[in-house]
């Protein structure tokens, strides 16, 4: 009986380890704060950026129509919000590889993620890259979505939550995006940083969009003090280092064990 129990325990441990070792895939998208990459030390900042060795980034080049070819190691001479999030989760899960697919453009309204989008069609770029990226690692789904878009919300700002719902419906129509995928929505710089009262209004709309589903959460960038901002809209390298870690810990903690084990 003792041998049987040991054998069963071994099989269960092996099965859990095998499932737990499956890759984690993060899709990030938005405008400049998601596309932005800062050279370490370029602003005189002092912080250590040691990206996880088990994190990889899809080599899309941020040009409309480009399709990436492979996942590559994270750069240690520069930092982006997407890379910081992926690296933080990877360090928490050393037995897994974390992959990030970042499809972002600077200065675009949410209309570029909706049907009949003006060029560049961000959603079309997502559709062109995500299936190929997943196939390259034998994955079948996105585990997290991180969204930072809102400084240029839309021609009808009050409709932003409805427009975000429409983007989510488009994603959920894809076989690689489960309806229960955890979503993090970043707020824009608060008015004390941006000096623009409209940004506080935009944050209210982003909070509303986040509150419309239990799978969504809002990340308030207003927690960053002045020294963490590069300008009126963008965090500096230390800002990305700080909020990327915090966001990753909140995001990863939102995943139930059944999702980690790929149970559907």
Supply database-style keywords.
264 residues, 9 helices, Rossmann fold, 9 strands, two-stranded antiparallel sheet, alpha/beta, disordered N terminus, disordered C terminus, seven-stranded mixed β-sheet, 39% helix
Q: What oligomeric assembly is this protein in?
A: single chain
How many individual domains? 1
Order of helices and strands: HEHEEEEHEHEHEHHEHH
Q: What percentage of the residues does DSSP assign to strands (E)?
A: 5-15%
Residues in helices, as a percent range = 25-40%
Give a count of the beta strands, DSSP E runs of length 2 or more.
Answer: 9
Give a verbal description of the structure.
The chain is of the alpha/beta class. It has a single domain, classed as 3-Layer(aba) Sandwich (Rossmann fold). The chain contains nine helices and nine strands. The protein has helices at 2-20, 32-35, 81-92, 122-137, 160-172, 191-194, 197-211, 237-253, 257-260; strands at residues 24-30, 38-39, 55-58, 71-73, 78-79, 98-104, 144-148, 183-186, 216-219. Strand 7 (144-148), helix 5 (160-172) and strand 8 (183-186) form a beta-alpha-beta unit. The longest helix is centred in the first third of the chain and has 19 residues, at 2-20.
């Amino acid at each position: 009986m003792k041998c049987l129990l040991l054998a069963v325990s071994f099989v269960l441990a092996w099965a859990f380890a095998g499932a737990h070792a499956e890759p984690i895939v993060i899709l990030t998208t938005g405008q400049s704060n998601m596309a932005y990459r800062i050279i370490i030390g370029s602003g005189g900042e002092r912080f250590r950026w040691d990206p996880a060795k088990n994190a990889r980034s899809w080599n899309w080049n941020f040009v409309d129509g480009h399709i990436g070819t492979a996942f590559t190691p994270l750069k240690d001479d520069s930092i982006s919000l997407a890379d910081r999030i992926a690296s933080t989760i990877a360090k928490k899960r050393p037995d897994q590889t974390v992959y990030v697919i970042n499809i972002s453009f600077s200065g675009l309204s949410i209309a570029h993620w909706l049907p009949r989008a003006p060029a560049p069609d961000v959603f079309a770029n997502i559709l062109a890259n995500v299936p190929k990226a997943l196939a390259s690692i034998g994955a079948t789904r996105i585990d997290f979505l991180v969204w930072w878009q809102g400084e240029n919300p839309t021609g009808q700002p009050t409709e932003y939550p409805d427009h975000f719902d429409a983007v989510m419906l488009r994603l959920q129509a894809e076989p690689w995006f489960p309806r229960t995928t955890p979503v993090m929505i970043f707020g824009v710089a608060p008015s004390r940083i941006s000096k623009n009262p409209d940004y506080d209004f935009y944050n209210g709309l982003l909070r509303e969009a986040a509150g419309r589903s239990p799978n969504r959460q809002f990340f308030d960038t207003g927690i960053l003090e002045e020294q963490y901002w590069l300008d009126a809209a963008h965090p500096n390298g230390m800002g990305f280092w700080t909020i990327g870690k915090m966001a990753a810990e909140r995001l990863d903690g939102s995943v139930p064990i059944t999702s980690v084990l790929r149970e559907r």
